[in-house]
Structures are given as C-alpha cells and as structure tokens.
C-alpha cells in the first residue's frame, strides 16, 4: 500500500487488480456505520486518489452484510450538541460530494446490503453503481428529522426523475436493488454472489481503457452535477439547520429507543 494512504486508518484499502484501488467500509459489527474520523477520512481520500499516478479506477464497497449504515449515533449526537462539530460536519459533507465529483478516476460502487447516509453518498455518486439484489437503499434524512441533504437533491432527480426522487426522499421508503435499477437510481443490479466479481471486471475494463478519454468524459458528464451545486448547497444548509431543532432530537431518540418517532405536528413554515 502506498504511503499516500497511510493516514486512512479507518478505511480498508487494497488492490484487487492492477491499477485498481478498492476502498472498503470496514466496521461490520456496526453495519459499517460512519463515525466522525471515518467521515473525515472519507472526505479527504478522494484528493489523494485524484493525484495518485498509479491508480486508474476505484471500487467502493462494504465489509460483511452492509455497504454502510450511515453516520453513527455518536456522530449525530455531536452534531446536535456541539456547534463546532455541526459546522465541521457541514463543511465535510459539502467537500465529500464535491471531492467525489471532481476526482478524475472513475469510481465503481459495489453496493451490498444496507446503504444509508454518508456511505450512500459515494454509492450513488459513483460513476458506475452496481448493487446486489439484496441491497437496501434508504435516504433516511426525514426519518431522522432533518431535510434530505448529503447527495439527495443534487443527483436523485437526475437519476430517477423528480417524482420518484420526491417519493423516496420525503417518505424514506427503502428500495431493493432491483427496484433501484428499474427506476434508474443505480447503473446495474446483479446477483449478490456476482457483485464483487462484476465490480472488479468493470474496474479492470476502465483501468485498461483510454485514460484521457474516460477521464474527460467523466469530467464533462459531471458538469450536470456542478451546475446543480446551488441546489446541493441549499439542501445541506437546511439539513444542518434541522440539527438545531426538536425534530432531529426526537429522530435520534427514536432510533436509539427502537421506536416510531413522534414529531411535533405544528410548523410555522
């Protein structure tokens, strides 16, 4: 492993094929939930991948039964209680999305099992997203009591249309791998047993292709996302604003207590 990645201790990195880097969420005991340190590393690593002359393609996946269960409860609690943590997380959330968009190497996600929150950012933003049939994709923001920030507003409507995006983002209904492929949210749905093999084969094909052509094509296509930057910035600001209110506290409490949330019914907006 290159010393370039020595600081990324919270992510498992390996090379499954020549010039292919695989990044694995590796906390299977918590369904690969993302703590504060992991969130920081996940944000920053894309700059190093961008500058790595020995890498032509990247795979992102999860260890065990899940891709990623999203931000862990301690991270969410710190955002609720600490204004500095709230601001830092907001900055990182924005940087994570833009760093993935601007990374010059093609990114392939292999979505196995549950994919929520910060993990889902990379899963959905990947240039080619491949999920197993048992994948369970959930946005989860409104269930937590905050606006659908992260990657929701910048890419869901582009992938699956505004009607479907509104349905799944407002209700937090889960999508199976097959349904996610059917509505265009992911590139491909495959048998669970074939997921890693197909992801590696896809990465190898991209890694051995015409690099300038592939990278320039990615850059041009991602202008669809760059021009939607103001939508994204607004959604993340509203998400973070929500963490200052009663709904987010009730959302977190209901998750911790494993019960249905009881949100306040009156709202002045």
UniProtKB/TrEMBL annotation:
PANTHER family documented for this protein: ENOYL-COA HYDRATASE, ENOYL-COA HYDRATASE ECHA15 (ENOYL HYDRASE) (UNSATURATED ACYL-COA HYDRATASE) (CROTONASE)-RELATED
Protein name as annotated: Enoyl-CoA hydratase/isomerase family protein
Residue stretches in coiled coil: none
Pfam families, A to Z: ECH_1
Family: Belongs to the enoyl-CoA hydratase/isomerase family.
Species per Swiss-Prot/TrEMBL record: Bradyrhizobium campsiandrae
InterPro entries for the chain: ClpP/crotonase-like_dom_sf, Enoyl-CoA_hyd/isom_CS, Enoyl-CoA_hydra/iso, Enoyl-CoA_hydra_C
